[in-house]
Design a protein that fits this description.
Elements (H helix, E strand, L loop, with lengths): L1 H14 L12 H10 L10 E6 L6 E7 L5 E6 L9 H12 L3 E6 L19 H14 L4 E7 L1 H10 L10 E5 L5 H7 L5 H19 L13 H13 L4 H8 L12 E6 L7 H6 L6 E6 L8 E4 L2 E4 H17 L3
Parallel strand pairs: 3-4, 3-5, 5-6, 6-7, 7-8
Antiparallel strand pairs: 1-2, 2-4, 9-10
Helix pairs in contact: 1-11, 4-5, 8-9
Length: 332
């Protein structure tokens, strides 16, 4: 069944048209920035607000549960500096809801309306947090299919979970989008050229995050110049790592991709400004994994031309993979 499913997912990949950027979004940077800025669909339902208790009972993660009518549950996890309100989270939730699925829109520790629910930081290795939310959903909806989609930072964490690294309760199917599977290289890439724009944004968002959730641990934040500084001064010690190097070494998913034991689709682009495609080309993959590399798309931009206008390539790709997995998994 697993090989048949992977074959079906591979056929689905071949059926998805390539992301062909409009003339005004030809570079990875333009894809990344405009993909973030252009308006897109949003969820209009209020949903049920849930606080999921993490390994330490004093730490919680906030999730908005949207009740569906199908036998499928979709969990969405955002990237660094994001929340459940991020445009890619909202668009994917809209698509899943149109298919009738249950949806958990998750805010990482202390993010969005979950501010103040945790003092320890979220980071790229928090497979345990993803696992806790999925465990909660499995108990609530035990006879359902459970699908997790992770974006950027969460894509790396989801790939760890798919390999049962740092956590045990897995989804039935995983889709990871633009994950920084080599954390050291990605953080170094952020220090060069136009990538400094993203680095400054991440650092500013993390400063605000610390003010909201752990002001007693702030210290002199003026000493933090970039994301690497933040990871050395805050992520590592507060997250239980010896130092930044230990965090990057133990939480980079690249080394674990050959151990993935659930059906997993990995989507990334060759022109991602700071997630190097070389890491994906160098990695070894388990037979349960399908790698989908696009030439264009930037970092979660994926704007493709449609006549004189544009559309969201990623939305249609995710829907295609969801339909394919569910169609195959429901077959006798």
């Amino acid at each position: 069944m697993n090989q048949t499913l992977i074959n079906s997912l591979n056929d689905a990949r071949k059926s998805i048209p390539p992301c062909l950027p409009p003339l005004w979004a030809q570079t990875g940077h333009l894809q990344t920035i405009l993909g973030h800025l252009l308006p897109s669909k949003k969820i209009t339902e209020s949903g049920i607000h849930i606080n999921v208790t993490l390994e330490k009972e004093t730490e919680r993660i906030h999730s908005t549960y949207l009740k569906g009518s199908s036998n499928t549950v979709v969990y969405l996890f955002h990237g660094l500096g994001g929340t459940s309100e991020a445009s890619y989270m909202q668009r994917t939730a809209v698509a899943a809801r149109l298919l009738g699925h249950h949806v958990f829109l998750n805010n990482h520790r202390g993010c969005g309306i979950g501010a103040g629910l945790a003092t320890e930081p979220y980071h790229s290795g928090r497979a345990d947090d993803l696992s806790r939310v999925i465990e909660y959903g499995r108990k609530l909806l035990p006879d359902h299919q459970h699908i997790a989609i992770g974006f950027s930072l969460s894509a790396n964490a989801l790939l760890l979970l798919a390999a049962k690294v740092r956590a045990q309760v897995q989804p039935d199917f995983a889709i990871a989008v633009n994950g920084p599977i080599n954390l050291d290289r990605a953080s170094q890439n952020l220090q060069h050229g136009l990538n400094k724009i993203y680095d400054k944004r991440f650092t500013r968002e993390l400063e605000n995050y610390m003010k909201r959730n752990s002001p007693e641990n702030m210290g002199d934040f003026s000493l933090v110049k970039d994301l690497r500084d933040f990871d050395e001064r805050y992520t590592a010690p507060l997250g239980g790592f010896k130092d930044r190097a230990d965090y990057y070494a133990t939480c980079s998913a690249k080394q674990y991709l050959s151990q993935i034991n659930i059906p997993t689709v990995i989507i990334t682009s060759e022109d991602d400004p700071f997630v190097a495609i070389e890491d994906y080309l160098e990695a070894s993959y388990s037979p349960m994994t399908l790698l989908h590399m696009e030439k264009h798309g930037g970092h979660m931009g994926y704007l493709t031309k449609k006549g004189l206008a544009h559309e969201r390539w990623l939305d249609k790709a995710l829907e295609t993979y969801l339909r394919t997995y569910l169609g195959q998994s429901s077959s006798p």
